[in-house]
Design brief:
There is one protein chain. This protein is of the alpha/beta class. The protein has two domains: 5-368, TIM Barrel; 385-521, Rossmann fold. It contains 17 helices and 23 strands. The strands form five sheets. Strands 1, 2, 3, 6, 7, 8, 9, 12, 13 and 16 form a ten-stranded mixed β-sheet that branches. Strand 22, helix 16 and strand 23 form a beta-alpha-beta unit. Helix 8 (236-244) crosses helix 9. It is elongated.
Amino acid sequence: MSFIKTIAVYLPQFHRVKENDEWWGEGFTEWTTVKQAEPLFEGHDQPRIPYQGDYYNLLERETFERQSFLMHRYGVFGFGFYHYYFKNGKKILEQPAENLLRWTDINIPFCFIWASEPWIRTWSKFAGNAWVEKENLNVERKGNGMLLEQDYGTHKEWREHFNYLLPFFKDERYIKKDGKPLFIFYNANQILCLGEMIRCWNQLAIENGLGGIYALGAHLETDVKELAAELLYEPDEGLHTLDRERMVQVRQGVRCYDYADLTREVVRGRSRTGRAAYYMGVTGFDTTPRRGRNGVCVCQATPQLFEVMMEGLFKKCIEENREFLFIDAWNEWGESMYLEPDSKYGLAYLEVLLKLSQKYGTVKVEDRGGADELVNVCDDERWNRLNYYAHKNKILYETAINLMFLIQEREYVFKRYFQDKKINSVAIYGLGKLGKGLLFQFEKEQISIKYTIDKYVGAVRKEIPMYRPEEQLPYVDIMIITSYEFESINNYLMDRGVKNIVSLHELLDNVAEYSEMIAVEE
């Protein structure tokens, strides 16, 4: 029996880039779209909220460490990173993969899926990816609507593209088949020179000791003999079949399908070109966060039905001796396709994957460094993570209690403290529950807040400016860090020349001591 490796599609859109700031507004990431989603018809499951509100930043090492733990714990072999590479070698959203390449100690097997189409405005005359359709409605129609042009070039451009990919291909974590790097062409039939490009890359790979390229093509309509196999990309393939069968209904303008119907078609899926095919399961699908009422929604997706779908695909992979089974997706939150835990189902989808991997014996742990090593790493990471959260929750709880008692014991104690210390300008870093509580107390005491800072959330008050940590921060007499990760934040800010930083814990101790002193005097 073959040992099947599950590869989850991975979206690197959860961090800021200057292009997104320019096109969609300052601070835009995929989380912006996710947070702004709203239910458009009765029973519409929106917005989707990550477990414990973890709106992470993909440029942070801790995010990759946490994802590495989860994927190994629940049977995901690797990630298929979307790769955005355009005309003249223009790249976007490349930083997470480049960081992973540098972080060699983080055990995440990976490969690339080249989303080889232009990026356009919705109203453009060109075909391509209109990334955030709802945002396009607010943009003045200027020019031809082309955001990033795609041009596949000839041998010179193919060699440049290959040379960029080569360090990834040579990484021991890069997923390979028979020693050849696995590479997926998302829109294979749109690349008219695809066969010649693959032949060029094969030769370059052989020259660099890689044995060639194991190339898969998705959305194939005609065969390309240089491809190793076809990838049936879901939910696209299944939805096309449901459209032909008229298994769709329109609800308040949104085209809706039933996940049970999609499950049936995904499991039935066959190659349209007669080639060997790899299969892909899908956790759900809802493009309304990006497209609004022009979106498509697959309704009634549940972990139980996902289990039915994936079990059918595992069986097909075993019967056809397919080494890889793809899943859409690990973190496509803007289209409601994700294995990552959320506030509704928690770890349920990951638990399904683990259950099936164990049932069919398809997780060969040795492929990822040996059984004992993996178990020890997972146990160590789990124990360290538990210790981290236990200590974090203890500190935050104690800080919250200290803040509550301080407020109850003496009215307007912060205002008096600031006046006595000649502190006239205040900033609050971190607008979690503690940060908001402190902000509300300062407002009660009529303490003026010059601005707030947070990586993820938006402004709490329109009249109080909101900054991101990487922006230029105006001078204040005191900057109060409410986050548990005070040391790393403090070091980061100090390196950028920020002064007068204090943790909330330290401030509360100082104010408590001050309160006792004035109590004696009075």
